[in-house]
């Protein structure tokens, strides 16, 4: 990173970094205030930094909810720098990782006048595998001209890149099918048996991470690594005793996905393709592999065809297979669905077992009279076949009551079966909170109704310090919560029409410049279709462009209105008047028919004691509150922003849980049900 000596060198040199007080960096007149134009002292940020540093130095866990505008990134980065131990910083997305590395760290380096040892690591599939590249070139199998060109670009780049990070290939399209053949994902890696091990980008990244003081990862990589530590693949991250999770409200689902078992038609196809392309010198052993291979090809084709017939979308099956979020993408799986003679799963498992056996035999070659050579590529294929066999049996038989079994069709050609732990708390308690000395969880949305109890119980965090920092924004002056008085219940047939009329009236007040956040894709489309015909503002909808370019278009088009579902409720940062209104169609309760949600709710209903019994109170309501707070967080991003939050769902006024939802929004946020008053306030009419 940049080393840009500042006028503050004398102060920094006068004391070692670990003894530099936080106030000297973040305080009024501190290093950031005096060297970084635009830095503004924020008492909440300093308070947060003190608590984080205390947890990191002393050990022990900490939850910090830092309201929007606290400056939480510096609030945890500065203590991470001042702490004596290696700190892992985990963010929700790759974009946030990049922002920390390319924006916040250079700022801190300039302020502190010294270089920081910070490394960014991404998931392994972001890095080029030199072994796969060499094999791919040897085989020379490229279906089209585009791929010939892409391979040539990648080949040239592989000689010059220091990181092997695919993000450097900015000239190539985002969707690059050839990359799936070349990336360094764990299950294909030969480890120390690889002929390219010494110059491998994963080996280098791991080495750099070992020498760093701060390692920036994302939640996917962190939990993939945590789960891999138990397996024979081993760890990617260096050993650590301190972890900070930003956007920590997201880690339950991410952790659950990495502690899941999964098999897919794509995994089978990839394994078979890799076997077909592997040379086996011994003719007899090659024949045995070919025979076993052919049996797997036939039985896998039967099994996946059968599975896709049984696991039908909601529109074609009974309620049990209903999919969530208005899509037909996923549904519940029972043992009786596929653990049958007709599915042929036992025959497939037997064929996989034979294939693994044949690959294992082929991996050992006699050399001369006494020597034996092992082929790491064949050993890796053997292990993949065994793993698929084991997972197939465990998922299809669906015997473990701690797991929910489900199917997913993420795209028309991809179909997967999964087993996910229903309650991730016990796993995280044992493998994270009991193993790591200090874990800091932070986000703008960790509390529901003023309490951290929900997030802590979901994650298995039994003991922790807690800190709640209010946003420094003046919501009394900057925002209004508008609750339309006359809308019907969202399940009433007239709701959508009434919602459309409210949206049109609101857009007239704010002259467009709004997000319409919806809880289902179907309702998002309905509102979009009806509103766009009647308003003079450009209307955009999720799915028409990639998310990042949609946000750019929204910012560039005067008066634009964006209709979005799940992914727009959080992580979108539009500062200024381009976003002056956030309209929420319904309270964002989790979809009860989603297999994971249904299993979690059932699990809670089956429990007794303080946390058990009432899935709505213990799970659905707090989830909805956190999601609503995230949605509101899109509106006011700076001290000069002004805007309206409108909740079209009347249940916030009519249902007993309404007050708990309202209490979770900022207490100084004025509320109105009168649109004329709203117009006067927004237009500054006295
Ligand atoms: S060590 Fe693994 S990731 Fe690295 S080049 Fe070899 S096979 Fe690829």
Automatic annotation (TrEMBL):
Cofactor(s) needed for function: [4Fe-4S] cluster
Keyword Translocase appears in the UniProt entry: no
InterPro entries (UniProt xref): ATP-dep_Helicase_C, DEAD/DEAH_box_helicase_dom, DinG/Rad3-like, Helic_SF1/SF2_ATP-bd_DinG/Rad3, Helicase-like_DEXD_c2, Helicase_ATP-bd, P-loop_NTPase, RAD3-like_helicase_DEAD
Glycosyltransferase found in the keyword field: no
Keywords: 4Fe-4S, ATP-binding, DNA damage, DNA repair, DNA-binding, Helicase, Hydrolase, Iron, Iron-sulfur, Isomerase, Metal-binding, Nucleotide-binding
Organism listed in the record: Chloracidobacterium thermophilum (strain B)
Lineage of origin: Bacteria, Pseudomonadati, Acidobacteriota, Terriglobia, Terriglobales
GO biological process: DNA repair
Residues in Helicase ATP-binding domain copies: 31-296
Family stated for the protein in its record: Belongs to the helicase family. DinG subfamily.
Gene Ontology molecular function, alphabetical: 4 iron, 4 sulfur cluster binding; 5'-3' DNA helicase activity; ATP binding; ATP hydrolysis activity; DNA binding; metal ion binding
EC number(s) given by UniProt: 5.6.2.3
Coiled coil stretches, renumbered: none
Uppermost EC category: isomerase
Catalytic activity: ATP + H2O = ADP + phosphate + H(+)
Protein's UniProt name: DNA 5'-3' helicase
SMART domains found in the cross-reference section: DEXDc (SM00487), DEXDc2 (SM00488), HELICc2 (SM00491)
